[in-house]
Amino acid sequence: MRQSDYEYYARRERAERMHAERARDSGARHAHIAMAEVYAERLKAMAPPAGATPA
After folding, report:
1. What is the pLDDT of residues 23-46, one digit of tens each?
2. How far, in Å, CA of 1 to CA of 13, rounded?
3. Cα–Cα distance for residue pair 17/31, rounded to 1 Å
4. I need a labelling partner for 7 at 20 to 30 A (CA). Which of 16, 37, 41, 51 fits?
C-alpha cells in the first residue's frame, strides 16, 4: 500500500481513540475503541517485519 494509506489509517486510529475518550455513552465509546483497533490492525499489517531491509 501507499504511504498515503498508512497515514490515513494512522490518522483514523488517532481520531477514533480521541472520540472514544470524549464519548459519554459507553456503547459509543466501545464502538470507537473497536474501530480504532481495526485501524491499528491495518497499520500492523502494512508494517514490514522486524529486521527487514528495503529492497
Report:
1. 999 999 999 999 999 999 999 998
2. 17
3. 10
4. 51
